[in-house]
Amino acid sequence: MKIEGELSKRFAVYRTDINDEPFERDGEYDTLEQVNGHKWRLDRRYKIRVDGKFMTRTEFDAWAKSKK
């Protein structure tokens, strides 16, 4: 089966709800540098999807350092 459309980006930043579950996508990115350049707001909580797995910003930072 062939599905038409754009491929999703490797990274996506999501805002989380009161239960810390992702609910609204804030941005999609191809590179670590683009994710780090995201406009983070202090009054929001985020999760970052990396290859289908959700991480907190702290987990993402540790993961990104291990990839360098």
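^ that was protein a. below is b, sequence first then the tokens
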Amino acid sequence: MTTNTEDKNASTFDLDSKFMRVLLVLVAVLLIFIGPTYVPYALSDLMKVDYAASAVLGIILLATGLALVWYLIRKKIIE
């Protein structure tokens, strides 16, 4: 019975950990600021991907970062 409880706890994020909170905030910041700027540039100019596809990916990364910030605010990690 304890193995099921340990398996459930191992698969979830420990938001009480200061390291995990800081890591999630840094990932959100990188997604918001680097996602829509440097990723489309690198894809279109350096990797020769179509500009529209790289811009769409940048918008998706921005939306993901904003959703992560919204999640962190709702969990009271960012106040």
